[in-house]
Amino acid sequence: MYLTTPGLVLRVTDYNDRDSLLTLLTPNYGKLTVKARGLRRKNSPLTAPCQLLAYGDFTLFEYRGSYSINEAASVELFQQLRRDLPKLSLGIYFAQVTEVLSQEDLPSPELLSLVLNCLHMLTQNASEQKIKAVFELRAACYAGYMPDLSGCHLCGSDTPDYFDLSAGVLECSRCRSFEPSGIRLPVSAGMLQAMRYISACEPKRIFAFDLGEDNLLQLSQITEAYLTTQLERGFSTLDFYKSLLI
Question: Model pTM greater than 0.70?
């Protein structure tokens, strides 16, 4: 049986001296593991569409639950990222997170659209910290980790001062002593407004907010801490990206 689908390459793994295994994110079939026969051979026609972070159209042959690539054509290769190591590293981090959050046989059009949008923004003259924060918080929301950003979860105040990374809730200063456990990070009014916007806005408008560069850095730190806390793991690609900024 043949299956035709668009897909984003999240991972490429050597299978043998000729073939590779690809992890694709597709809108209708979720995450797929497919074999790219002959990909490691010189001048393989699959080289461009099957490279990491390539987005393309794939025709897959399915046999007994396994998929192999019959044909592939590139749609977007994000070439500008491949000439900028920090941006490429950040894009690969997005792919690694996406692979963790996506599931097989579970349609993922929103997550796919988000990562493609963020990769596109990386090719533009946009703040990397802003793109990173948007990806981390929105991806967490799509994965079922939507934080409660309405107000202090204890007293209801709409001007809280802290964000609880484990519970995904807000607190104000006078309520902190009631529940001393957990990790809480300070959050300014501007950062909270941005977090509320990112988690609830229309996908096409997700970057349409303004925040100073210093606040963007702090926002990126909070969204990173929230995502990694919820997933209970770190990411080697994120560590490498951050090492390039030192």
Answer: yes
